[in-house]
Amino acid sequence: MNRRGEEDRGYGTNHGFEGLTGLPPPRVLLRLGSGVALAARDLRSGHRPAYYAISIALLYFAKRRRDVVFRGMFLLFGLFILACASTHIIGAWTVWYPAYWTDGAVKAITAVVSLGTAIMVWPLMPQALQIPSPRQLLELNQNLASEVAERKQAEERLRMLIDAEPECVKTIGADGALLDINRAGLRMIEAESIEQVRGKPVSSLVVPPDRERFETFNRRVLAGESGTLEFQIIGLKGGRRWMETHAVPFAGRPGAPPRGAGSHA
Where is the PAS domain (predicted)? Predict the structure, then answer.
């Protein structure tokens, strides 16, 4: 073996500058020079701290937001960036200290994480492409707000028409409680406002002799029937009045079972 090979072998055996005379071999000078240059660049630009800051931020976000979409990819990308940064640091460290097992272990971990990230990212791509963009979400929110405003206006117009009705119009829930009633109905039951009677059983206003017939009639309406019933009520102030109600079932949405009864008296 020539002298240059012996110097190279001796340098590799000593793993560093200790015990050597003269300059290190050119291959080590190249690695040392590039490592020093990269280290100086990274210290000046903050690349290594940035790598760790990004990876820690991704891992922290994935830990705190367990409901986030593609949470696993956040974890993998955070580990991938963390591992890549570590390989550069360990690589520079081995120029002075022979931490080759550590260097190999970190590189192996980086390879496994990067391979897992590459395997997982492509199957998730179709789902990721279907995620609405911020502009699309903004348009959806604007359309939804417009629909809500239109519905409120429609409800207000319907409320005005119902309040203008000279007869009693009311809605009763599945439990027999009063949900809503117009102004004419409030006058008939001698109530000052809807808050006085909302949520209370309508049967409590019916005279005892007619109460059982009234409750049976309501159960039939909730079962899907329509009908007419005459009964007598006692107002909140003690006044008595005969009522003839025409009731129909109503559902929250088309095809759903009845969730209440609407009546006109």
Answer: 156-223
Per the structure, the count of domains in the chain is: 2
Q: Any idea how long the chain is? A: 265
Containing structural domain, residue 202: 165-264
Q: What is the pLDDT of residues 94-126, one digit of tens each?
A: 767 777 888 788 888 888 888 888 888 888 888
pTM score, two decimals?
0.46
Answer yes or no: is 154 within a domain: no
Q: Give the type of residue at 131.
A: I
CA atoms within 13 A on the CB side of 26: 2
Whether 130 and 172 share a structural domain: no
Backbone angles phi, psi at 90, to 5 degrees: -65, -35
Residues paired with residue 241 on neighbouring β-strands, in sequence order: 233
- Residue listed under structure tokens 């019933």: 229
- Count how many Cα atoms sit within 13 Å of the Cα of residue 251 in the half-sphere of its side chain: 9
107-113-118 Cα angle (round to 5): 125
- DSSP result, 112-128: HHHHHHHHHHHHHHHHH
In this structure, of 127-136, 146-155, 208-217, 249-258, the range with the lowest mean pLDDT score is: 249-258
| Confidence (pLDDT) at 206 | 92
User: What interhelical angle do 26-45 and 71-93 show, nearest 10?
Assistant: 130
